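so i finally got all the pieces together for this one. its two components total, 584 residues if u count the protein bits. some of the lines might not be protein, just check the labels. i wanna see the whole assembly predicted at once instead of chain by chain like last time, that was a mess tbh
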Amino acid sequence: MDWPWAIALLFGLIVALMLLGMPVAIAFLAANIVGAMIFMGGTIGIVQVLNNGFGAMTSFALVPIPMFLLMGELFYYTGLAAKMFNAIDRLMGNLPGRLAYVTVAGGTGFAALSGSSMGSTALLGSLMVPEMMKRGYSKYLSMGPIMGTGGLAVIIPPSALAVLLATLGRTDVGALLLAGVVPGLVLATMYVALIYGWTRLAPGAAPSYAVERASVAEKIRLVALDIVPMVAVIVLVIGTMVSGWATPTEAAALGCLGVMVLAACYRCLTWRAFRQSVEAGLRITVMAFLIIFGSATFSQLLAFSGASSGLIGWATAFEVSPLGMLLVMLAVIFFLGCFMDQLSMMLLTAPIYFPLAQALGFDLVWFGLILLLALEVGYTTPPFGLLLFVMKGVAPPGTTMRDIYYAAAPFVSCVLALIALIILFPPLATWLPGAMR
Amino acid sequence: MALVAGVLMVAMMVMIVTDVALRNLGYQSSAHLFTFTEYFLLLIPLLGAPWLVREKGHIYIELLISALGPDARRALVKLILALSIAVCAVLAWYGGAITVQDFVQGHKDVRSYDMPRWILMAFMPLAFGMMTLEFARLLVRGESPYK
């Protein structure tokens, strides 16, 4: 079979099954079974599917994923996350647009730890939007920051998606995690500037209202008790990794332990909270790993059938600059983002994208970071981004799709600007991991 | 099975932390810890997957399903369940075949420790077999696999 047909068959089958509404993991496995029968010689192919799954799962590089997820759930179920939210809220005082900043700060922390921007959008949407609307915030300023936080969460450590992408691309997990630190800070600054500018230009979007002023002593107490310890755990995770004292896996496990110790100190590590955290962490881990199990053979089938090399040869034969190629790759992601979640998009594209990026001479860490951001943008881009529909689902009645587009647009633009910045100034992404070597 | 998976996940964390602690206290840490962590990584999703079918936790794309009328939706869900049962049953069958073969031929998974491979492989037919049953249960009850 010629490679264009192989590609059409493999991608066509999987996308068709997914669109039909089959669980994504099963869709991958189904496409593998059919693909393996055709390209790997009948039933031997199916044996191969299982053996590949065995090999792919028992890979030490994936260990940080369940650990990061467990850490996030512990943070949430023990109530430490809510404590931090409240403290940030109190500290802001009378600043115009206070709740918007709180959403960005708290939402980023939460989304990064929970590892799922869909989940955190749903949670923050139902939690913060009614509160902000009640205070007279415009609906755009109420919903925008929530959709913006997802973009931050995928790149700053601890990001489970970054671990997976690095594993798929066979690059250094630690390097990709660290690469996101500086761009993450840049993006956070852009968000803050955006909200500041917004509340200045349109003061009506965030009416100020009297809040109980916290005294200086109170503020110090809040910072010392409710913020510093939580931030310390995140610093512990990044710090041990940066200093080379622990591998990403070990840093993630230490982070888990850190949150548990912290929760125990606040006397909120109940058996119930612990069980809930493990269950919630397990839920996402199993869901994600089963998809990874299925996709292990998928990438091999692409290689086996000649589809990968055919497509790469075809793509590089064009007289297109590497930059042009990169833009085409990003455009494909944006398109897929209309109907797919990030995990599926990543597993579908990575087996083709990383070899292609290598052929084009890209720095893989730099490329991986851009890909992560693009995955998030694809997810939030009008008119069909999945996250927009999640937002619509939890938004107050009477919110139209158009409202949500307008709310998301400024924040999506920030992420796009960041992608452009990283393309123009690669050191933004590569400097920190390079400095650590 | 899911309970075991949850215990394994916590055990994994404890093992890694112990490993770091031992290393930094100057002891030689055991290479077996490393190997077992990798095995746990395989067992956690396999043990948890059937439970997740029952809990309706697998992700899917709802674009088409939510756009259909009730009758068409019911038919589509039946089709999806039937396909899912077929996929899981095929994998359970061949998983069983590999397990038996590994057992008979005495294959070992050589890492820090020579683990008889069939012990690990046996979890595959178990997982996919149970998933087949869970999907079949949904089909018989006329339930949707989605929330």
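Chain B has six helices and two strands.
The two ends of chain B are 22 Å apart (CA to CA).
anyway lmk what u think
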